[in-house]
Every structure is written in C-alpha cells, then in structure tokens.
Specification:
Length: about 900
C-alpha cells in the first residue's frame, strides 16, 4: 500500500480530527499544543525525527480509519524500520502528545465546569449534593434529610499502589502548563500578555520533551508520601471547604456565610502510603512513623498559614465589634502563655481583640508543629473550641459574616484534617500474623520479621500519642479467612505493649478478597463481634464497624462478572446482618482505577449498591493515576467530591433502595445464570495447563515489574508458573498494555449468551442498576481494546487454543454489549467518552506497535540490545498515558 502524498495526509488527519466532534475550543487547544510539540521536535529532536513521527502518525490514523490489513501492515512496517534509538525518540514524542492531549481535555472540563457555575440555574445540576438533598427531602421530609446530610461521610483513602506511570517531574510540568492555559484564556488576545503566555507555553512544552520520562529508580515509601502531599498542598486543603461552602450556598442561598452553616464537614481522608506493608518489605515501622510526621507537618503548616491570613484580616476594633467576655478571657490566657508575641501583636493592634486572639492561635498551631510542649495544642478539639469562642464573639457583636466566612472555612479544615491530615492505615497479610504469633507463643527472642511486626504496633501507639487517636488506628487484615485472623491483631498488640504497657487503640478491619472469602464474610463477622476486644471497641464507638471488600483479587480469582455479582451479594448479606445487630456499618471498597479492579464511575456504582449497604457512609481506595486525575486540579476535585457525596446521600433514598432491592430479586435468575457461565468460562482460560507462562509471554507482565512505578514489588514471591501470588495490579496492567483489557470483560459475553434473551437483557439494562453499571464499564473497557493489536500480542505465544479463546470471547462480549446498549457501536450512547477514546486510539496504536517491536526482539533473544528494554518501558509509560489508566 502506497504512502499518502502530503496533501492526502493533511486531508486524512483533518477528516479524522473533524470526525471526533470535540468542542471547538478544545480542538483549538489540541491543535495548538500539537503544533508546539511539532516545533519542539524540529528544534530539539535529532534530524528527521519530526518527519518520522509524522509518517507513523499518519500511517496509524490511516490504519485506524480504513481498517484494512494493508494499512495496518504498513504502519507496523514503519515502526519496525526505525533504529532502536529512533524508536526511543518516537515513543517519547507520542507520550508527550498524550500528556498534552490529556491536558487539553482536562482544561476543557475545567472550562465547562466554570462556565456552568457561572450560569443562572447551575445549582440545579442533577448530580450535586444540593439536588440530592432536595430529592431526599421530598421522600423522607426535610428534617430527616438534614440529619442524613449532617451524618454524611465520604472517605477516600489514598494508596501507594504502583499505577502512576508518570514521574513527578512530568506531572509538575503538566501542572505548570495547565496554569498557563488558564492564564491564556484570561489574557486579552493580540496583546503583549498573550505573546508572553504563548512564549512560556512553548518553553514548557520544550521542558516536557526534554524531561526524562522514566524514573531512574523505584520511589521509596517516603517519596510516595511526599507525592501525595503535593495533592494536599495544591488542591485538597482549600478545595474541600470550598465544596462545603458550595453546598451551604445552595441550601441557604444569600444567608450562607451570614449564619451558622447547615453543612458539617463530611470528608475524611485516609492514607495507606507508608502504612501498607502487605508484601512490601520497604514499609517498616520507622517508615510508618515518618509518614505520619510528614503528613502532620503539612497540615499544621496549612492551618498555621490560614490562621495567620484570617487573623491579619480581622481588623475589627472594639467600638464596632465588641469582644465577648469569653474572648477576652481567651486573649488573657493566650497572652500569659506567649508573652513576647502577645506584646508585639497588641502593640500593632491594641483595640482589635479578635485579631489578637486569632494571630496567637496561629502561634499555638506553629508550636504544635514544632513540638513545643509548653504552648502546643494536645488535640485538634482544643483548637476547634478556641475558634468557636472567636466565632461566637463575632456573632454576638453583629459580625456574623466574619464569623461564618473565611473563619468557617478554617473550622471545616480542622474538622476534616485534624492535626494529622490523613488517617494513616496499616495493612498486613493474615498469614504474617499467624506465623509471628506461632513464633512468639513458642517463646524465645523474636526473629527479624516478628520484631518488625511488633514494632508496627509500637509505632501506632507513638503516632497516637503524638498526633491523636485519629492519626492512626485502623488496622486492615488482608486475606481474612476466619475470626481468628482478626483476633490475632489484638493478641499481637498486647505482645508489643508488654505486660505493663497499654496497647494502641485499634479498629481491626477485615479485608475479604477472594470469592470464597466473600461468601464466608457474614459468618466470620458474626463470630468476631463476640470476641472481648471487638465487643469493647464496638461499645466505645457506638457500634461502628468497618468491613473492607477487595475488588482486585476477587476479579482475578473468578473473573470480573462473577466477582461483581459476589461482591453485591456479600454487601447485601453483610448489610442485613449489621442492621439486625444494630451495627453502624461502613463498607470499605478496595476499588482501583482500572475496570478490572472495580474502577469506573464511582457515583453510578454507589447508586447500584444493595439497600442499607451505604447508609450515608462511603469509603474507597484511590490510587496512582486516579488520585491525580480526580484530585490534582481544584475544579475537577470539587466536582468529583460533590458528585460522589451526592450519590452517597441519595443512595439511602427509599426509592433508590426499593429499586435496587426489587430489581435484584426480579433478575436473580439472570444473575445466577451469568455467575455460573462466566466462572466456568474464566476457569477454562486461567486453569488451562501452561496458562501462567503463556500470559507472561503474550503481555509485558514481567517488564511491568521492571518499571519504577512504586516501592511495592509486583509479586509476593512466586514465579510466573503460578498466578496465585501475582498481584492484581500487574495482572490488570499487563492486559491493558496488550490492548486486550481482559481483566475488565472476560466472561461477560458467555454469561449473556447463556441468558440468551436479548429482550430481557435490554430490560435488565434499563431496570437493574447493577447490570447497567457492569455493561457500561465493560463497554468502556472494550472500547480501549484493539483486536488488530491484540492479535499481534497473542501471536507472541505458542498457544493458538488460548489465543482463540480470548479472541472469541472478546468478539462475543462486544456483540452482546452493542446489542444491549443499542446504537451502532461501543459507547455510541456515551458520545463524550467515545470521542475521548477515538481521539487517542491511533496514537496509542503507534506506541503499541513500537512496544510489539521491542517485545518480539526480547522474546526471541532475552540478551538482545539492552536499549530494547528501555524502549519497551518507554512504550509502557506512553500507552498508560494514552489509555489514561494502568492497573
């Protein structure tokens, strides 16, 4: 097949871009950023690089739009023709393009959110806390709805799972570009300001190109903690109170900020970063204490700065704003403890008592951070009490706007983050606890592993003493298979404290991960709550209990369809048991970014949960690229938190609970058929002799472990002869890289075929939220697959039977999903998402072809050119950027 002429190439690219129907301003951003990258490649790349990138780009677009074997073969031939050094540069160029295209799309989302917020009636958006409250009020009455709003809890937990393929340096460059795009939107066109911004954008694109895309080495747990801190510093600290304010504005209208808010702080942030030691030998007791210290330092600095800023603005003299007796007493108390500072502040503001007090409170926060025992707060409740004295005094003096304006934001920040920022959670495997206890019960000096396990409990106790009980205390037991697995944690804590010591306060959380464990969960819970340590803790917390559900391993265990159904059943049974026992249950969802790990839109998943399984409380893991995608940009973070919190509030509406209950009953026979058929089909694949080494051959599974993504190893220790010990993240990541995405859809086609009744399945898609969510997520997963590319990866192995099984199931699943959802193809009912996938697909194809070229050479000769290994890792990073998810 001949190469298109320059005129034909321009026409081809133009028609392809026009067919994506993207907003004109986004199209302009993509075009401008792409042109700047082209300029950088000409100026900074090696001779001929730009032309080679264009040749491959045009060839992959032609292959994607024409869908002819000849066009695909020509694109493959171009990728294979490059020297390894040139292929390296081309891979970097396409990866840069994805970063810029993702940025343009994010910028359009931010632009749309800001425009929506500026329009009259924008408060009536369908998926906000305010509209969820209005709907709930109609069903249960305004008083009950208000009580549920004030009891609302959304608890994201940031994890260090290694799924963020970008370096921090790359992420930082992208964030600087994002700020420049905003500045360009706000700059007058044609003036010196626009030229300055354009010059800076070009400079930043050049910086992005010149920045090495791969980390030189794996990050340490401390590095991972600091990465998470960047999200807090740049976004979350100010975004979360802004969400509360937006909800209060919607509920109170013009009175918001003039009287006490109706909204209570409903976000709590958790972290596994520095605490999750399941299979990660680098997370030690010392690392856990370091993580807690770093987080506390960041939040106390934030609170100190906010308090200083507010104090400087409270220039209200005693004549216009008479201080209350309680405020004057607080001023005297603070001045007596910090005489020199008080004298200096009073000298500048002698008649501004509120200003004096708030500035002295900032000094106490600083002393807390620095560990000055004479001046420091012991716990955040003491600071909240002082801030409320200031608020009450302002209200009494008629200065309600000062009381409930920025000062209220500070109150919300203290309530949300305390002095610890994120509640650090520890996780360890149940088998480790059992081994250590056996060793300790046998007597003698503890070995190295036992000593480290005991040190963890001592570290938790030290964190609680230093930063308060909220700073640490949740202890998650991976692979919980019995009540004894949970009781073991309390036994170890008592061993660590010694006969005369006091163990830390612990909330021990079972994590049910496999199919069998999910089925056994209700019985295990019924047994464990009778154990004395658990019963005592339940009584102390008002019978609150957390239970964690693992999406990743259950999906790897029985396939995504059976795992989804098993998780729903387990939640329903656990919720029914908790309701009978009078236990306030919080289900903790171990969801991931990728669909094979329970990913997908969280709000639709929440509204598909069983009755009473949410009840106004939702906790989930957020990790890797998902953290930065959802929380890295303030406007998007606000929108995400608002959407999820709205779904959590609305999930307890009687109409939603009745819909989910009745539809689950009505389609129980469909669920049973799908479960059995999908499990059998999944077992046919993964239990086939030789499957594990075949999987490692046809995907870059082994190579993913070499990419410096995170501190945690990719496997718990076994070889690729066994999948049992392979972590779910590389399982998903490897299938994603091969453009097969098997972990997100395999078995659904067979399950739907077993039901066979298209009309009933279409009705189920309309009426049964669980089925709709499952099929929509699979549609998204399949849209990111590519059958042509997948065939090339599958051909790397020598098992035509397994390759055919995968291809047949992919075609069967695709056909059923399209028929059930209607339209002409995948995602045709979701045009925005379809556009995003189609815009990237041919460019991802280019990187996949380069990855295949490297994989073929490495499979043929493991001792081939070491630069091929680098090319492979570069392509892995680029495909992750293009698909916008990894593991």
């Amino acid at each position: 097949m001949r190469e298109p002429t320059p005129t034909e190439a321009v026409d081809l690219v133009g028609r392809f871009e026009a067919g994506q129907e993207m907003p004109e301003r986004m199209r302009a951003d993509v075009r401008d950023l792409g042109a700047l990258l082209g300029q950088v490649l000409r100026e900074s790349g090696s001779p001929g690089l730009f032309e080679d990138v264009e040749r491959l780009r045009i060839a992959t677009i032609q292959a994607y739009t024409q869908e002819s074997p000849e066009a695909f073969a020509r694109a493959s031939a171009i990728a294979d023709s490059f020297t390894v050094a040139r292929a390296d540069e081309v891979a970097r160029a396409f990866t840069c393009y994805f970063h810029l295209a993702n940025l343009a799309e994010e910028h359009q989302r931010v632009r749309s959110l800001r425009e929506r917020d500026g329009r009259p009636g924008s408060r009536d958006a369908a998926d906000t806390v305010a509209t969820a409250f209005a709907r709930l009020s109609e069903e249960v009455g305004p008083d009950t709805a208000l009580q549920r709003l004030q009891d609302l809890r959304f608890h994201p937990v940031f994890t260090a799972h290694p799924t963020e393929a970008r370096r921090r340096a790359v992420s930082a460059s992208i964030r600087r570009l994002a700020a420049l795009l905003v500045e360009r939107d706000e700059t007058a066109h044609g003036g010196a300001g626009e030229r300055r911004v354009s010059r800076r954008i070009l400079e930043e694109v050049d910086t992005l190109w010149r920045t090495a895309p791969l980390r030189p080495e794996k990050p340490s747990p401390t590095d991972e903690v600091r990465s998470i801190m960047a999200v807090f510093d740049e976004t979350l600290f100010t975004t979360v109170p802004a969400v509360y304010r937006a909800v209060d504005d919607a509920l109170q209208g013009d009175e918001s900020g003039h009287r006490a808010p109706l909204v209570r702080s409903f976000v709590r942030v958790g972290s596994w970063v520095g605490g999750d030691r399941d299979g990660n030998p680098f997370v030690t007791a010392a690392a856990t204490q370091t993580a807690a210290g770093i987080a506390s330092d960041h939040v106390l600095r934030g609170l100190e700065r906010a308090c200083e800023r507010i104090g400087r603005s409270l220039t209200l003299d005693a004549v216009s704003t008479t201080p209350s007796a309680a405020l004057l007493a607080l001023r005297e108390q603070l001045a007596a403890a910090d005489e020199d500072a008080a004298a200096e502040i009073v000298k500048r503001s002698p008649a501004e008592a509120h200003r004096i007090v708030v500035l002295l409170l900032a000094r106490k926060i600083a002393a807390t951070r620095l560990g000055d025992a004479d001046l420091a707060y012991r716990e955040p409740d003491e600071l909240l009490a002082d801030l409320r004295v200031v608020q009450d005094s302002l209200v009494e003096a008629g200065a309600a706007r000062q009381a409930y304006g920025e000062l209220q934001h500070l109150v919300w920040q203290v309530e949300t983050y305390g002095f610890h920022l994120a509640e650090l959670e520890v996780r360890q495997h149940s088998a480790v606890h059992a081994r250590v206890l056996a060793e300790l019960d046998a007597g003698g000096e503890p070995g190295e592993q036992a000593g480290e396990v005991l040190d963890v409990f001592r570290a938790i106790a030290a964190i609680q003493r230093r930063h308060g009980l909220r700073a640490a205390g949740r202890y998650i037991v991976s692979f919980t298979q019995s009540a004894q697995d949970l009781e073991n944690v309390h036994r170890l804590a008592r061993y660590a404290a010694g006969p005369d010591g006091t163990p830390p306060v612990l909330d021990v959380i079972p994590l049910f991960e496999t199919f069998a464990d999910l089925q056994a969960a209700p019985g295990i819970l019924a047994e464990i709550v009778e154990h004395p340590a658990f019963a005592e803790r339940l009584a102390a917390t008002g019978r609150r209990l957390e239970v964690m559900l693992g999406y990743s391993d259950s999906s790897k265990d029985v396939g995504p369809v059976a795992a989804t159904l098993a998780l729903y059943t387990a939640q329903a049974q656990i919720a029914e048991w908790a309701d009978r026992e009078g236990i306030r249950l919080t289900l903790f969802h171990g969801r991931g970014g990728a669909l094979g790990r329970g990913g997908g839109p969280a709000n639709s998943a929440i509204l598909a949960q069983p009755p009473h399984s949410v009840d106004g409380r939702f906790k989930l893991t957020e990790q890797g690229e998902v953290i930065f995608a959802r929380y890295g940009e303030p406007e998007i973070a606000r929108r995400h938190i608002d959407q999820v919190a709205a779904a959590v509030l609305l999930a307890s509406a009687p109409s939603i609970e009745e819909r989910n209950r009745s539809s689950a009953e009505r389609y129980a026979d469909v669920a049973a058929t799908m479960d059995a058929a999908s499990r059998a089909r999944f077992a046919e694949l993964v239990e086939a002799p030789g499957f594990a080494p075949w999987f490692a051959t046809v995907t870059p599974m082994e190579e993913v472990g070499l990419l410096a993504l995170g501190s945690r190893p990719a496997r718990r220790g076994l070889s690729v002869e066994s999948l049992a010990d392979l972590r779910a993240i590389p399982w998903v990541f490897a299938w994603t890289q091969a453009r097969i995405n098997l972990a997100g859809w395999f078995g659904l086609g067979t399950a739907l075929e077993a039901v066979g009744d298209l009309e009933r399945l279409q009705a189920g898609y309309r009426e049964w939220p669980l089925l709709r969510t499952m099929i929509d997520n699979v549609g998204m997963s399949l849209a990111k697959t590519d059958e042509r590319i997948a065939r090339e990866y599958l051909a790397l192995g020598d098992r035509d039977d397994l390759a055919a099984l995968v291809r047949d199931e992919m075609a069967l699943t695709r056909g059923w999903v399209v028929r059930i959802t209607g339209g002409t193809g995948l995602l045709s009912h979701k045009p925005v998402l379809q556009r995003a996938v189609k815009l990237r697909s041919p460019y991802v194809d280019a990187l996949s072809l380069l990855q295949l070229r490297a994989l073929r050479a490495l499979r043929a000769d493991p001792d081939a050119d070491p630069e091929l290994q680098r090319l492979l890792l570069l392509s892995v990073s680029g495909v992750a950027a293009g698909l916008q998810n990894t593991g």
